[in-house]
Amino acid sequence: MSDPNAVREALDAAVDAFNEAGHGIPTREPAIDADADWKTQLTKGCRLLAVVEEIGGGGYYTAVVELCFGIVERSLEAFLIAEGGDELRDFQTDSHDRCYDRAARFGLFTRRLARELKDLYGDNRTDSYYGGRHPTSQQADAMYRLAREIHRHVTDQIREGGVCNCDR
Questions:
Q1: Helix 111-120 × helix 97-105 angle, to 10°
Q2: Which is nearest to 153 in space by CA: 78, 86, 92, 96?
């Protein structure tokens, strides 16, 4: 059995793109603020929210649910890096629990709310992503509202303002 040439070529191109090999000056997403890790995470949350707003009415419920969990985590990570002294690499683990646990520890949410958010992730994101669940319109709408409210709350709690670009 041999590997399909099209897949091999596409993989090589993807590796080159991530290694920034042979493409000249990279064109980066301009709305992502790369001045500090917390700004990067926060503005990634902004951009993910923008995508959800763009596709939200298109029936892409699975994508919306997945992106919303990403928005929640990027937003919490931004807060914890900016205000909690965490480092980005602290979140590059197999566990998604860390950001929820740390959010409670640093008073962003009560322990109860943080646990409920973690349970929502554990019970639903995993099944939605890996399981056979088919997300509904109502689930996508609810996750969008939750992600938007968490992102807004986090943005309001970070002392250095003016970084969130959701309203620009």
A1: 170
A2: 78
Residue 48 burial (C-beta neighbours within 10 Å; 0-12, 13-18, 19+)? buried
CB 52 within 8 A of CB 164: no
Q: What is the pLDDT of residues 32-67, one digit of tens each?
A: 999 999 999 999 999 999 999 999 779 999 999 999
Residue 25: CB atoms within 10 Å? 6
How many CB atoms neighbour CB 81 within 10 A? 22
Cα dihedral sign for 123, 128, 130, 133? Answer: positive
Whole-prediction pTM: 0.90
